[in-house]
């Protein structure tokens, strides 16, 4: 079982150097935080000054910019950033603003160009940000343009197919800042996956209220009771330096709260189908499904020549390694695909945020190989990777087709946001099942208080 002195460990026999091993505890204290952090404009403004410019932010994925001139745009607050593939294969990022009058250079969320041209007065810039041409330059006083005003560069770096940017340019090197062990992200080969769906919905809550709901499984049995026959809601929680964290959520098992631990019901049969198995030919019990799925996935990977499966523990083949990238991203990690969630603050309203999620899939020409069904892809989704879908955008109050579980989360998060304003709520009382929340908020406060 799970108590505050003996946290849940999924695999007690995992070697200490295994990525699956339980991490040593962090002492983040037991302080009850002021709930105004979830709705105060003052706290929001402190975040804009002290947090967002100083951290590395997930700006996109490398598969979106495969060729020279391919670019993608990332917006956060008042800032917009272009990341573009260079002739030598590297990536450069720039503030999406023309130095002449401040007009955005890129007007689309992504595209491919040989140069950037401002739509306002047709100033043009090379892919490396250097000024190429000023329209009617002879009409400018030479002192104004002698410095050859190019696009302002934004610090950028990548790891394992993920693109990060740092707005003030003062963060430690990305490899030092990411608190995860070497190989943790790279083993999934996200650079070989493609975005097959991208949805951005506006939720009536603070971004931290949203994030909090997604980085614990304490609520599963009560908000998502339909998950009880396919996943355990006791998860292994692990904390890493610099606010990074994860939870390993056991899938293809029943929750310990379910009395019948023997019958292989419809949920587990569905999980077996997901792994290319034939449930009607399975003669085992519910407790035998998880190892059977793991064996099936290994056999399928070997048949398909997917060598990266050799890097994974058995648990990684079934379970969700929901990994938190400080401050505002969680990625559900699977060998077949990943589910990226970004909790993007609203530029001006502390009680709105954008839930931005990208589903990436490594397409294989085999009908039994598909992105995990829990990711909720609509049935008609093109998973070939040949065409990058546009972002599906939904305003607050408009339901997107996110699936039953996420629809339940929308209702939950917006209700919690109303509750944190109550005089009867004096601050969150986090258990050890919510240690990831305390870890993230403690790191946020280090930035806010000038300790980082």
Tell me what the structure shows.
The chain is an alpha+beta fold. The protein folds into 2 domains: 290 residues, Alpha-Beta Complex (Naphthalene 1,2-dioxygenase Alpha Subunit, Chain A, domain 1); 129 residues, 3-layer Sandwich (Rieske Iron-sulfur Protein), CATH 2.102.10.10. The mean pLDDT is 95.
Short description:
The protein has helices spanning 41-50, 142-145, 174-177, 207-214, 220-223, 266-274, 289-304, 314-318, 404-419, 435-448; strands at residues 57-61, 70-76, 79-85, 91-95, 110-112, 116-117, 124-125, 131-133, 153-159, 162-166, 194-203, 236-239, 245-249, 320-325, 329-333, 337-345, 353-361, 392-394. With 452 residues, it is an alpha+beta fold.
What is the number of independent domains? 2
Indicate the CATH architecture of the largest domain: Alpha-Beta Complex
Order of helices and strands: HEEEEEEEEHEEHEHHEEHHHEEEEEHH
Q: By helix and strand content, what is the structural category? A: alpha+beta
């Amino acid at each position: 079982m799970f108590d505050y002195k003996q946290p849940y460990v999924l695999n007690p026999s995992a070697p200490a150097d295994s990525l699956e091993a339980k991490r040593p505890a962090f002492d983040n204290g037991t302080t009850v935080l002021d709930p105004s952090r979830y709705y105060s404009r003052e706290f929001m403004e402190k975040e804009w000054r002290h947090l967002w410019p100083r951290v590395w932010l997930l700006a996109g994925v490398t598969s979106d910019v495969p060729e020279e001139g391919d670019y993608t745009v990332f917006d956060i607050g008042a800032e917009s950033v272009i990341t573009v593939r260079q002739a030598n294969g590297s990536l450069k990022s720039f503030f999406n603003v023309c130095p002449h009058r401040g007009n955005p250079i890129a007007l689309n969320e992504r595209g491919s160009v040989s140069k950037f041209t401002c739509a306002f007065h047709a100033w043009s810039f090379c892919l490396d940000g250097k000024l190429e041409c000023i329209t009617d330059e002879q009409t400018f006083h030479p002192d104004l343009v002698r410095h050859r005003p190019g696009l302002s560069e934004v610090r950028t770096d990548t790891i394992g197919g993920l693109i990060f940017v740092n707005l003030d340019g003062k963060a430690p090197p990305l490899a030092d800042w990411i608190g995860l062990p070497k190989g943790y992200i790279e083993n999934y080969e996200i650079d070989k996956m493609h975005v097959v769906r991208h949805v951005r919905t506006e939720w009536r809550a603070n971004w931290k209220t949203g994030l909090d709901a997604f980085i614990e499984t304490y609520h599963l049995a009560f908000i998502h009771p339909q998950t009880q026959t396919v996943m355990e809601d006791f998860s292994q929680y692990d904390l890493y330096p610099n606010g990074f964290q994860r939870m390993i959520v056991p899938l293809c098992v029943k929750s310990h709260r379910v009395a019948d631990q023997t019958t292989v019901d419809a949920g587990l049969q569905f999980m077996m189908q997901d792994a290319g198995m034939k449930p009607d030919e399975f003669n085992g019990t519910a407790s035998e499904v998880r190892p059977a799925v793991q064996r099936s996935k290994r056999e399928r990977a070997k048949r398909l020549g997917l060598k990266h499966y050799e890097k994974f523990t058995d648990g990684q083949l079934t379970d969700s390694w929901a990994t938190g990238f400080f401050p505002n991203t969680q990625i559900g990690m699977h060998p077949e695909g990943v589910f990226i969630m970004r909790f993007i603050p609203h530029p001006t309203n502390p009680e709105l945020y954008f839930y931005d999620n990208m589903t990436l899939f490594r397409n294989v020409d085999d009908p039994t190989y598909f992105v995990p069904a829990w990711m909720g892809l609509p049935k008609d989704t093109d998973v070939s990777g040949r065409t990058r879908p546009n972002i599906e955008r939904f305003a607050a109050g408009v339901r997107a087709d996110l699936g039953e579980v996420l629809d339940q989360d929308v209702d939950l998060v917006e209700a919690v946001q109303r509750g944190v304003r109550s005089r009867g709520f004096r601050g969150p009382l986090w258990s050890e099942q919510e240690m990831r929340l305390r870890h993230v908020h403690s790191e946020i406060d280090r930035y806010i208080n000038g300790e980082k």
